[in-house]
Amino acid sequence: MNINLIRNFRQFLTASLKMTSKLTIETVKQNAEVAKRTIVELRNELNNLNAEYNNLRAEQLREENAKLLIAVEQARKNLVDLEIANDVKQIPVPNRTSYKIDALATGESAQTVSELVKAEAAPTPNVKDSKPKKEKKPKETKEKSSEDTNIPIDVGRLDLRIAKVEDVQRHPDADTLYVLKINCGEDKPRTVCSGLVKRVPIDELKDRLVVLLCNLKPVKMRGITSEAMVMCASSPECVEVLIPPKDVVQGDLVECSGYIRRPDTVMNPKKKIFETVVPDLHTNENLEACYKGIPFTVPGKGTILAKTLKNVAVK
Fold it and tell me: What sections of the sequence does the record tag as coiled-coil (predicted)?
């Protein structure tokens, strides 16, 4: 009886172990399959994330490139403005970047700008029906340049006129400057900054007639553009505004006998016309303002005088 029980128990254990082994193997297989599917899903998700990241990074780089394009264009414009301010000759060249900048300024996407860049890089088709460009005339330009070169640098290049001071104010940002409104016979008065504050009382300038140099290049003086210069007799101790003859009116021209009056529209600072002429401007023993000893005159009305200063510079 005991032997049978033991035999039955052994059979039971053997059967149980076989069943457990089969269950364990099935479980392992199932878990392996689940793990495999999970790995595939994770790999796909990772690929999707990488693609999304690459797209975002590419968009970010396009936006950064677009901003750099704007910065480069602005820097170029600033450089051109500085060159123009310093009379550096500008040579026109084809420039098709402005529409890209305009697209960015109006809120176009970086992709749009990128497409514009690609379009610019593409070769331009040869269109037979396109309008022919106007031909330049190099001969005329050379002739004009030659004429300018042949004009002597003397007092005739200065545009000196009689003018009337209509208003005088102190410069808001410069203690030594007046800001004058001066009418020299044009449609509107010119603004002139003059360093006469410590030399000439403001009451002596109001409503008086002066000699005005009208073709200097306009220049900013502490934020205010000065468009001409009041001519004065000057010594280290004293400055006197030149006095026109009687019966003159604003707009009358000032001449110098023996020199043809043919003033530049605006004197080119590089040619140093005024700097060449000014050493020969002075008053004589008769208080007359002169160029190389020849008095300035308003034809038919008289000479230009200083009040008291003899044999001093005029500037």
Answer: 25-85
Final residue of a structural domain among 122, 142, 168: 122
Q: How many domains does the chain have?
A: 2
Q: How many helices (H) and strands (E) does the chain have?
A: 6, 15
Asked whether residue 297 is domain-assigned, the answer is: yes
pTM of the model: 0.54
Query: Is 60 exceeded by the pLDDT of residue 138?
Result: no
In a domain, 136, yes or no: no
Q: Containing domain of residue 228, as a range?
A: 152-314
**Cβ pair 283, 306 in contact under 8 A:** yes
DSSP notation for 166-187: EEEEE-TT-TT-EEEEEESSSS
| Cα–Cα distance measured from residue 263 to residue 152, given in angstroms and rounded to the nearest whole number | 11
CA 198 to each of CA 61, 103, 233, 234: distance values in angstroms, whole numbers, following the listed order: 60, 54, 15, 13
**Residue 91 and residue 84: Cα distance in Å, rounded?**
11
| Position with higher pLDDT, 90 vs 141 | 90
The separation between the first and the last C-alpha atoms of the chain, rounded to the nearest angstrom, is: 145
